[in-house]
Each structure stands twice: as C-alpha cells, then as structure tokens.
C-alpha cells in the first residue's frame, strides 16, 4: 500500500494510473474506520483494478456548535485496517494541505438539504460537496462508494456528480449493523453504557414502522407519530427529527407511495446518531 499526504504526489500517481487504463474505486472517509467502511472497501476491491482510500477529517463540514477537534482519530489503526483490506493507495492529507488558504470558491448545495440532517446543520453539505469536488479531481476515480446510513449524503453526492458531469459512477452500499441492529458508526464509541443499550431501538422503531406500512398504513403523519412515540418511550435521547420523504428526490409526500426514506436522528449526551430505511411500495 502506498501512502500519500500531498495533493501533488497523489494526483500525479492517479494520472499515471489512468494512462495505463486502470479502473479506480474510491472510498472517501474521515477515518476511524469500522466494519461499515470495510464493507465499502471490499466492494471496491471486487469491482476495480485499484482501490483508493482517503482519510481526511474535513473542517468545512463541521458547524459552529460541533467540535471538530473531538472527532475520533486513529491513523495508525486505520492504516492497519487498510492493509488488511488490500487498499492500494491511502491518501491522508492535512487540513493545511487541503486548505492552504481561505477558499476563494466553495460548492454551495441548493437542493435536498433543507430536510433531515441538512435542516439542523446549515453549511454541512456545502463542506461535504466542496471537499468531494477536490477529492474527485485529485483521485480521478471510476467509481465512488458511500454507505446508505447517511442516505441524504448519498442523494447530495448523486447530484454533485450529475451537475458537475464527473465521469464517476456512484455506488450506494447498504448500512452495516451491529448484531442488535445499531448502524455502525465511529460516533457509537461516545455512547454511555445505558445509551448504547437504548440505541438499538432506533432501528427497531424503523422496522416496526415498516411493519405498519406492510400492513397497509399509508399516512405519513401516522407513521412519523408512531416512531416518535416509540423513541420517546424507549430512549433517553433527544429526538432531532423523524421524517419521511421521496427518495432520492427528498420531496415531501402526504401519502406513502413509490420509493421513500424514513429517517431519524437522536441526540444522546455525547453522540448524535442517525438511521434510516428506504422502502418501495
């Protein structure tokens, strides 16, 4: 595995590989890798000649009330995981390398951001889109892999690729879960013991809602209220949102039909967890 920390060296290597006709599968991350990331790397390994992993905690996507410095980091451990997953290239630049000065141009996302996580995190997806635009130009991948745990991000990246005409195929991958259903996330390590036990109910609430829909329920508000009550009764966290939208358009709907996402976010004492399911009827 080759490790690069500068944009120049990474970009030069990728340009050379593209001349040789190699297909590149890219997994962009903020590090502190877990099984969810590993599943993306495995899929990238299956579908491409070469796999590139980036590890960069992007300051632009942290809001003023979010602690950038507290985001978990362990680069040595991440390198070991990358080696075990047969990653060919690891790109781990510093913040100064990626943003040597105040950016004169930023990507501003205008659609699919006024709902779910975007509603309570203004500017977050601008930061995501800006760093991905930079990374796409540096890595020049054929395919890019994202987990559907953050389905809103997948929807935003879908249009980033389409609107800017990146020659990249977006590969959404299913959420990887713990045995009790909790979606795997680096933030899970911040849960208190009691909160960890409660956190399994996020996915349980979604599965129970799906059973309602399978039994014929079609009213959006009825399903949202059911999930809200379930979470209030089974967790001590503060509900950030419970929402249902068409997917991937993320448009409001009154009656449930077609493909839609049921998404939620719950704030515990030191971690904000998200989860979702996508249903087609």
UniProtKB/TrEMBL annotation:
Positions annotated as active site in the UniProt record: 37
Signal sequence extent: none
Residue sites binding (R)-pantoate per the record: 61, 153
Species in which this protein is naturally found: Bacillus aquiflavi
Protein keywords: ATP-binding, Cytoplasm, Ligase, Nucleotide-binding, Pantothenate biosynthesis
Note: The reaction proceeds by a bi uni uni bi ping pong mechanism.
Residue sites binding ATP per the record: 30-37, 147-150, 176, 184-187
Binding site for beta-alanine: 61
Reported function: Catalyzes the condensation of pantoate with beta-alanine in an ATP-dependent reaction via a pantoyl-adenylate intermediate.
Family in the record: Belongs to the pantothenate synthetase family.
Name of the encoding gene: panC
Example of a GO cellular component annotation carried by this entry: cytosol
Gene3D superfamilies: HUPs (3.40.50.620), Pantoate-beta-alanine ligase, C-terminal domain (3.30.1300.10)
InterPro entries: Cyt_trans-like (IPR004821), Pantoate_ligase (IPR003721), Pantoate_ligase_C (IPR042176), Rossmann-like_a/b/a_fold (IPR014729)
Pfam families according to UniProt: Pantoate_ligase
Official protein name in the record: Pantothenate synthetase
